[in-house]
Amino acid sequence: MRIVLGTLAACVVVGSAAAGTAPVARNLVATASVKAQLRATLLARIPAEQRSKVRGPMPGRTYYGSYGPTRYALAMFSFPRTGTTDQPELFVKPSGKAWQDRGDTGGCLSRIPAALLHVWHLVAGAC
Question: Which of 67, 81, 89, 91 has the fewest beta carbons under 10 Å from its own?
């Protein structure tokens, strides 16, 4: 499955009608700083001799948002041998903690809250 990711721009909010009962999904702007943090998180798990060959996050291919207090990001990277196969990469940042690289998605987005996928205009698809 191939997913085409677009550039984030506006902040969109989706929530429950009942006040305070469900987390709120927000589409956030992936700033240069956020992208640099995602890249650093990814590179930390790659052998040092391969880091300079990794490209990304690829321009226009980063989704960033929050679901409740947790931040999520999908970013497309290109690797020397495989290119963008099995991308995008999933990142999660629990409140007050560092970004965690949850690995490539292979196009399977079911690990992301459905409400956040909705504001990103993405579908989890069959995994």
Answer: 81
**Interatomic CA distance for residues 90 and 4, integer angstroms:** 14
- Give the C-alpha separation, 80 to 55, whole Å: 9
Rounded CA-CA distance 123/107 in Å is 10
- Encode burial over 52-89: b for 16+ CB neighbours within 10 A, e otherwise: eeeebbbeebbbbbbbeeebbbbbbbbbeeeebeebbb
Question: Per residue in 14-44, pLDDT tens?
Answer: 444 445 678 999 999 999 999 999 999 999 9
Q: Residue 4 and residue 14: Cα distance in Å, rounded?
A: 22
Segment 38-59, tens digit of pLDDT: 999 999 999 999 999 999 999 9
Query: Which pLDDT score is estimated for 42?
Result: 97
Q: Is residue 8 a part of any domain in this protein?
A: no
- If one counts the domains in the chain, the total is 1
Q: Which domain holds residue 85?
A: 13-120
- pTM, rounded to two decimals: 0.81
Is residue 125 situated within a structural domain? no
Determine, yes or no, domain membership for 1: no
